[in-house]
Amino acid sequence: MRIQRDESLGVTLFEPDDFDNPIIQHYAFTRCKSYKASALKEMKRVYEQKELEEPFTQAFAESALDQWLFDVLQDVPFPGPRRGEEDFTFIDLFAGIGGFRIAMQELNGLCVFSSEWDLAAQETYRRNFGERPFGDITKQEVKRHIPKEFDILCAGFPCQPFSRAGVSARNFLGKEHGFEDKIQGNLFFDIIEIVEKHRPKVLFLENVKNLKSHDGGNTLATIKSMIENLGYSFNFKVINSQTLVPQRRERSFIVCFRNRSKTFEFPDFSGEPLKLSTILEQSVPDSFTISDALWDGHIRRSKRNKERGTGFTVGLADLNKPSNTIVARYYKDGKECLIPQDGKNPRMLTPKECSRLQGFPDSFQIHKSKKQAYHQFGNSVAVPVIKKIAKEILKKI
């Protein structure tokens, strides 16, 4: 990447790292007025740290941003449409590594705000989109950066308090779950706060399958009531991704329109399930083959759990069927999906294979840490499912 340089002074005015700030990056990509003052203030602070005699000017800052953006657009895999060329705008809450964003950008949407608190996920997001998300969306100093107007609010809000495994673990440990969870359960209320203030045309939400049955249906009923009380319609469906990606991944999807007169039907996801074999890499290093100790441990625990009728069991994947659901804990032992191998122990999926199971393009830049990569893809959405639903949403707006 080139640097911002004043040849007449013979000094570097801005280095590429000087732009590694969510406010500056969001302003460079979107030119939203809500970012302008803060972005220019931050650039001035960086400039003045260099103790140069030349005064800082807005014209120079805008020129530097244009050059930085030009360089970024040459380097990142998924830059999205330029400001003024988009068909719609959206914000990406609980953004993870950008599963929603890829799908929405492929439909010519411009992301005008992104938020993700996990630092490793932020880095993966930045490498793929050129923009570092803002941090903790529960903080008012983060919420205040959301542009006043945008079309669609996208959010795969955290699912741990509602997931079947998560609820079982919390019951065993004596912890609270669902809306009683004092941290993650409350994050839905942050979505409601943003909706109430900004009134987007559409809410597009994703959560775990168990959202439907949690607390006897009371959790979903509460979510529905809160959204409808804001004047929005409410459409809900559990969708299995297996006809678009070779993974049995059932997730809850919620689509809500500010204009309640608009009817909405989720697209059809029926069809022949895809085969796991279609996404497997041809040559995989032996480092992905699990050890004798781990494989023996899987077998012992599976036998014990079957006998007592509870807990996870492990089995080899059927390559002619979709995989089991890939989860965030997959990096620990791979028990959700182990690939059989001739003459040796089974192996774990590679991060690239996990990426493909979620429908990410092969050009997607994967985190260099295997642990982080597995965790990030396990927490992600299936990109083709998001895109197919979004196409139906866009027909209405």
Describe this structure in words.
The chain is of the alpha/beta class and 397 residues long. It has three domains: 4-75, no CATH class; 88-270 and 381-396, Vaccinia Virus protein VP39 (Rossmann fold), CATH 3.40.50; 276-377, Alpha-Beta Complex (DNA Methylase, Chain A, domain 2), CATH 3.90.120. It is 38% helix and 13% strand. The protein is built from 14 helices and ten strands. Helix 1 (22-30) crosses helix 3 (58-75). It starts with a strand and ends with a helix.
Question: What is shown here, in short?
Answer:
The chain has helices at 22-30, 33-48, 58-75, 99-106, 119-129, 140-143, 164-173, 187-198, 218-229, 292-308, 330-333, 351-357, 370-378, 383-396; strands at 4-6, 11-14, 88-93, 109-114, 152-155, 202-208, 235-240, 250-257, 338-341, 344-348. It is α/β, with parallel strands linked by helices and 397 residues long.
